[in-house]
Recover the amino acids of this structure.
């Protein structure tokens, strides 16, 4: 049936059903706002469909196979065989469960769902083009709007994602076979998570990175632990090289790179995964018709309520400048925007945003590094606990890495933490909570932690900063 061009109205229109948009829509509906959520592709956005969730599912499968196959030391002898297409189906099942859940939750909370692509007509209306031939379009008028259209992968010259051997992260997550040789372009967090995963699944992995280390933005001693482990897994890493192109060979492809001095190198592969970052999706919605302008990289600027320059239009998630492109940031911003529209006195004023990288070992960070603290005018005091001194870490056979806590020497307030090691993604939550609560080193150190757990290392790092550590030498 042709829907035709009908006009409807809504108090709040949310564009994009990723973790920014669907969370905002549900919270707004909970506050009694008549809310419409429009999505052009799949509920759950990048995170649930092509990002956080499928990547973590694949990482779990790869870890399990790798662990089982490498536990000789513990007397476990196994030679696991990974059925990649079955692993993919299992991963898709997890994704389907979650995306179906999002749809149900939206409906149960009274959110009106519309499938289609939104473009602004003016600052109070969008046109929705429904997918498929003859599906027509409609106009939705709104009092308020939240833009939550997320981000897309960045393409680099010479590598077209339409070409079969060239993978985006999304293609890599859909793979139903493991390439024998994989070149990964980019040593950022997505590149390193996927390199490690495919190495564990049996691929010969080469990483080429333009900078001189992996994981830019993370401290060098944190990156070093991950890099060492990646090398142990057989990942071949090349720094100071930018990928410039690829060509077909009799046996697979050849990826070429170039250094700053113009020196060329070549790497044989079957697939090349390009993971050089993501850019905001603000160029396909005619934002100018709504009086909005993105910066030259496509980001929208917002205030601490997530309002754009056009006061009744908000933006959250990956489209927002100056906040990290992370799912939990998008969701928090979505909640702030929805509650502000509902008339509540809220602001995006989190003391610190945690981040996790699911490499081997994992990284968890929150708040300030020692250098950040110095730069901000604090006199930082730092405490560190290596996992090799943790009984629980040794019993899991994963004792690389450390917990580091950064605090203000004078007041003792916890300012930040960097964890690299087993379960760092979970452990960092304790320190994010400490910062949000305004806790001091004393608070963390005097909290009784269950033994034997990895979390004890957090307590020990705080004790170490206070010069009172029992299981490590005080600094
Ligand atoms: C491989 C990978 C792994 C990741 N791992 C993690 C992780 O472990 N932890 C973490 O925190 N983050 C992770 N991320 C990042 C995370 O996915 C994003 O930060 C998050 O999805 C951003 O949420 P969002 O709501 O802003 O946008 P998105 O999730 O991108 O959702 C935007 C939605 O808007 C829709 N849309 C766009 N334009 C229109 C339009 N005009 N009309 C209608 N709909 C539209 C899109 O189809 C999409 O569904 C990962 C990303 C990738 C790619």
């Amino acid at each position: 049936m042709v829907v035709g061009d009908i006009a409807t109205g809504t108090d709040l229109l949310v564009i994009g059903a990723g973790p920014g948009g669907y969370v905002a829509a549900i919270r707004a509906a909970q506050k009694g706002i008549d809310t419409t959520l429009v999505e052009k592709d799949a509920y759950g956005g990048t995170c649930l469909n092509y990002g956080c969730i499928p990547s973590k599912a694949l990482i779990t499968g790869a870890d399990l196979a790798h662990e089982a196959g490498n536990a000789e030391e513990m007397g476990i002898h196994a030679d696991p065989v990974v059925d990649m297409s079955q692993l993919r189906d299992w991963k898709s099942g997890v994704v389907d469960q979650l995306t179906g859940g999002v749809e149900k939750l939206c409906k149960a909370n009274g959110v009106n769902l519309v499938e289609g692509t939104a473009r602004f007509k003016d600052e109070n209306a969008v046109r929705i083009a429904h997918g498929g031939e003859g599906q027509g379009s409609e106009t939705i008028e709104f009092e308020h709007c939240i833009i939550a259209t997320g981000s897309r992968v960045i393409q680099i010259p010479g590598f077209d994602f339409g070409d079969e051997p060239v993978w985006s992260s999304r293609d890599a997550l859909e793979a139903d076979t493991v390439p024998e040789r994989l070149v990964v372009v980019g040593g950022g967090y997505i590149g390193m998570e996927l390199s490690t995963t495919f190495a564990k699944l049996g691929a010969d992995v080469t990483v080429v990175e333009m900078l001189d280390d992996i994981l830019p933005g993370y401290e060098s001693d944190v990156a070093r632990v991950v890099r060492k482990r990646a090398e142990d897994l057989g990942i071949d890493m090349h720094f100071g090289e930018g990928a410039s192109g690829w060509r077909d060979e009799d046996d697979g492809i050849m990826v070429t790179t170039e250094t700053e001095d113009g020196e060329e190198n070549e790497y044989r592969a079957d697939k090349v995964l390009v993971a050089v970052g993501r850019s905001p999706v603000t160029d396909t919605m005619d934002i100018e018709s709504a009086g909005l302008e993105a910066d030259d990289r496509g980001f929208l600027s917002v205030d601490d309520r997530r309002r754009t320059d056009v006061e009744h239009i908000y933006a959250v998630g990956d489209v927002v400048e100056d906040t990290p492109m992370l799912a939990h940031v998008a969701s928090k911003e979505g909640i702030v925007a929805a509650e502000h529209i509902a008339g509540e006195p809220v602001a995006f004023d989190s003391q610190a945003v945690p981040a996790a990288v699911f490499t081997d070992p994992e990284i968890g960070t929150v708040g300030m590094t020692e250098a950040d603290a110095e730069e901000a005018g604090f006199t930082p005091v730092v405490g560190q606990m290596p996992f090799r001194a943790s009984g629980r870490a040794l019993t899991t056979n994963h004792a690389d890495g450390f917990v580091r806590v950064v605090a203000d020497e004078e007041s003792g307030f916890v300012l930040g933490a960097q964890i690299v090691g087993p379960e760092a993604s979970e452990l960092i939550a304790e320190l994010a909570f400490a910062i949000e609560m305004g806790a001091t080193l004393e608070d963390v150190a005097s909290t009784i932690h269950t033994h034997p757990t990895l979390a004890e290392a957090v307590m020990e790092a705080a004790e170490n900063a206070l010069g009172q550590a029992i299981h490590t030498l005080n600094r």
About this structure: The pocket of flavin-adenine dinucleotide is lined by residues 15-21, 38-41, 45-47, 50-52, 55, 117-118, 148-151, 169, 190, 281, 284-285, 317-318, 325-328, 330, 358 (CB under 6 Å). The mean pLDDT is 96. The radius of gyration is 24 Å.
